[in-house]
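Input set for joint prediction.
Command: fold jointly, output tokens.
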Amino acid sequence: MRRVTTDIDIDALDRDQARQELARLAKLLDRADAAYHRDDAPVMSDAEYDALKRRNTAIEERFPDLKRGDSPSDRVGATPAEGFGKIRHARRMMSLGNVFEPEEVRDFDDYVRKYLGMSADASLTYTAEPKIDGLSLSLRYEDGVLIQAATRGDGAVGEDVTRNARTIEDIPTRLENAPRILEVRGEVYMSHADFAALNERQRAAGDKVFANPRNAAAGSLRQLDAEVTRRRPLRFFAYGWGETSANLADTQSESLRVLGQLGFAINDMTRVCDGPEAMLEHYNRIEAARGSLGYDIDGVVYKVDDLALQARLGFRSTTPRWAMAHKFPAELAWTQLEKIEIQVGRTGALSPVARLHPVTVGGVVVSNATLHNEDYIAGRDADGAPIRDGKDIREGDWVQVYRAGDVIPKVADVDLSRRPADASPYQFPQTCPECGSAAIREEGDSARRCTGGLICPAQAVEKLKHFVSRAAFDIEGLGAKQVEQFYRDGWIKEPADIFTLEERFGPGQPRQLKNREGWGEKSATNLFAAIHDSRRIPLSRVLFALGIRHVGEVAARTLATHYGTWTVFIRAMDGAAPQEGPDWNELIGIDGVGKVMARALVTSFAQPAERASIDRLVALLEIEEARQTAPADSPVAGKTIVFTGTLERMTRAEAKDRAEALGAKVSGSVSSRTDLLVAGPGAGSKARKAADLGVEVLDEEAWLKLLGQA
Ligand code: IVH
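tokens >
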């Protein structure tokens, strides 16, 4: 064991000496940690270790601003925090669009070329690399030091798994010659061999056995006790980056090479391809190698290689335009359909679910699958045309189960030769199995829906579950299970009740949460605090949380950015209720809002009972104004712009995205609310209408000049 000097008097240190001493201690403790935890070969005694740590803390207390990003006082060894902290990603973590067919890969290339205004024969290269089936992780390095690791979470906010990430050998804790700020993104995964060995150990110890390497990796990374993570053999491939203070290189492929030089594991099956045919060839190569890689992959990812083009292509709401996942074909299996059950969703839809004799499909045991709707069971599509050659599905049938990636397994086909003699056609219920109200199917709707509204317990519970889900209110300690219990007991009947829970069941009340089974002083206090914190919430989350039909996360964000505040939004919904007039036209003019969604919006706010429930909720919240993502000096922020005619310097799609990125609203039609018309050659009726209305008209050059990009 080596001796460590800890005897220079802390009070005598000046700032420079303190900084140096903190650096020295960080290094010593880092080494000691690695030696102890990773190599099982301690280099100092526990007492020495503790003395160093105390010294480090004492210096930090004297010079708080010198505390390092990688301070040993924040590291493993300290008591684990309860739950994971949240980290807002400096750049959103995106997911990928999926395709399955070669033709769709060619379409992707066409789309990219079209967006960029490139001809079919101009050179355009892509990288093609395996899509690792694990979970994504973002690693933030500042001054070459790993200071933060976060899971993807909802893309905007992830979980802080820094301690856990530090235990993964493939993840360097320090980098040499890296940009000052560098977020490295990649996939955490577990190899087949390590997975088998882990399950063996788990089984022997009577612990949980994991279904597949992906689940094992996720379960191992998301351990509150980083010491458990350390004992799990996790690996990491870097495939991209988030925020960086300087570009790593000019291309995707070169940037990966630089990440490799910095010490990250890079997948060696990555290739640069000069077009869709080469991409498909490499896809086949990767698929052929799939079985011998030793880890799970579920497809191939293509990315535009040139980073300048990536920047022009940019992102849709959750996926980049410059990348695409080409998934391996879905996996199939045959099994017996034991029973058809009906679930009632938050919008009242009666959804048939197949209860199956358990069967393994692509390494995952499946015992439930969706049957979509009553037409699907009967063997016809929405227009009455036959599907599966018109074969219906009955309880007792042998059915083919289909699973692709993360999607819910589906029943795809039925084997009539194995149909039991006594099987009879399935009778789809005409009343809600949960509340007994009539279940009605409206014209043009594929689902039969319960008409019970708020009196239907299934709808109420599903609404509440949706309300607390991750992309909605996401309240720590209040998940689907808790909400269901609270509903059963009558403690929470509608979203507003969540925010009065403490008033009714908090300290000093006759009945208290902390005395309930499964709860205690601490968990009750934590829940009240989490609820309290979630009162302040972005408008987009509220709009999504309301669970209005057709209003998903993307639409909620679109609406929030368009209207900005709740007051403006709700006034506009009231104004649009007659489904005509300026407010209605504005609503359906928003890009991404169709008539169907607009109708769903205005009708749900116009229903007295539902509206009263929403008003009760909103009165208890502090809804944040939708953040203007535009730079403060944007000349077009908040303006409504219409493009017409041919643009010559960029495609229409690119122009629209740019304008939106600068905070403008882009509309398809000219009205009295239009601020600006950008007209290229060939502009017709829109230009005339703009002139009539006195709307300012610019040509493309003037428009680019206005943006400072001419
Ligand atoms: S690129 C902005 N490359 O797949 C682009 N993703 O389905 C972000 N994944 O969330 C992703 N291997 O967790 C990329 N070589 C690879 C990947 C990969 C696995 C995961 C990643 C992502 C998910 C999207």
